[in-house]
Amino acid sequence: MPALTTADIAFLLCTSQQQKASQRFHLTLTTAYGLVLRLGANGSLTADLSVPDSSDSDLTPTTPTARSKLPFPSSKPAPTSIDSILHGPHVSPDAFNLAFPPPAVKKPSPLAPGQGYKYRLYPDKHGASHVWYAPGWPGNPYSSAKRVREVDLEMRYPGEWFDAYLDWAERLEEAMQRRGKGWDGVKGKREPLFVDEGERMLWMVEGLLLACWLSLQGDVGAVEYQPAGEVFVVEKGTLGRVLRRVLGAV
After folding, report:
1. How far apart, in whole angstroms, are the C-alpha atoms of residue 210 and residue 212?
2. 193 three-state secondary structure
3. The pLDDT value given to residue 83
4. Which of 117, 78, 122 is nearest to 97 (CA)?
5. How many alpha carbons lie under 13 Å from residue 166 in its C-beta half-sphere?
6. In this predicted structure, what is the pLDDT of residue 102?
7. d(CA 250, CA 248)
8. pTM of the full predicted structure?
9. CA 89 to chain centre
10. In this structure, are strands 96-99 and 45-49 parallel, antiparallel, or unpaired?
11. Sequential DSSP letters for 158-180
12. Order of strands, sheet of 35-39, starting from the edge strand that comes earlier in the sequence
């Protein structure tokens, strides 16, 4: 069966928030880059990093797997598909576990306030990257807002996450090209960036998932996610609240 994509997971998150309390069930979703999302039958929503089953907590990704380094496309088998969830004859109240094989990750050590990078993730029609260093953060290499080079993101983080970021950025840039001069960025938006409302919702939630995973890394203090006008601050310990807030806004 086809593997669940990040767009599939974003769709399931959006639809789960629209269900009545009597229709909810436990669901565990894992992205290709190791972000685990747990939806409870009581409406709870949490996010964390996947960890290896072995007791060795120091496992780290080995060879970079970014698509720019792959000689041919890779396939990621998954135990089920989105069609089997949405169109199956019966949904068990027991927990589903819809997961890619999780990348080996390392549990982050706690950072002191102001330490680690603070990123800002938002659309920028003038730049080759949509990730910036947030200004005024002590742990950043610059005191003012500076664009993070994509090569730095690729070096710092696993290829699975970087590939997902490139896909998200590519769809953003395609939407910008379609809009042309009718869209002037976050600060001076004249028309909606995405004409299709469903496309906008999925893109917005996928970006949030990227920001959530990034905020859980050991070298990151926080992430500001600004898909439109409002800024969502994503930090360790607050992911569930931010996820519900964004899903309620889309």
Report:
1. 6
2. coil
3. 53
4. 78
5. 16
6. 52
7. 6
8. 0.73
9. 30
10. unpaired
11. -HHHHHHHHHHHHHHHHHHHHHG
12. 45-49, 35-39, 27-30, 96-99
Residue 143 is inside which H or E element, if any? none
Q: For residue 51, how many other CB atoms are within 10 A of its CB?
A: 15
Q: What is the largest CA-CA distance in the chain?
A: 56
Token pair, residue 121, equals 């993730």
Quote the pLDDT of residue 196. Answer: 84
Task: Compute how many other C-beta atoms are within 10 angstroms of the C-beta atom of residue 25.
Answer: 15
Q: What is the mean pLDDT of each run of 10 residues along the chain (250 residues)?
A: 76 78 77 92 87 41 46 43 50 48 53 78 78 90 85 95 94 82 54 80 93 95 88 91 85
Spatial separation of the C-alpha atoms in residues 178 and 8, rounded to whole Å:
24
Token pair belonging to 215: 């905020």
User: DSSP alpha helices (H): ranges in 21-145?
Assistant: 82-86
Of 209, 154, 149, 173, nearest to 7 by C-alpha is 209
Q: Which two tokens stand for residue 24?
A: 């909810």
Q: Inter-axis angle of helices 197-215 and 239-249, to 10 degrees?
A: 170
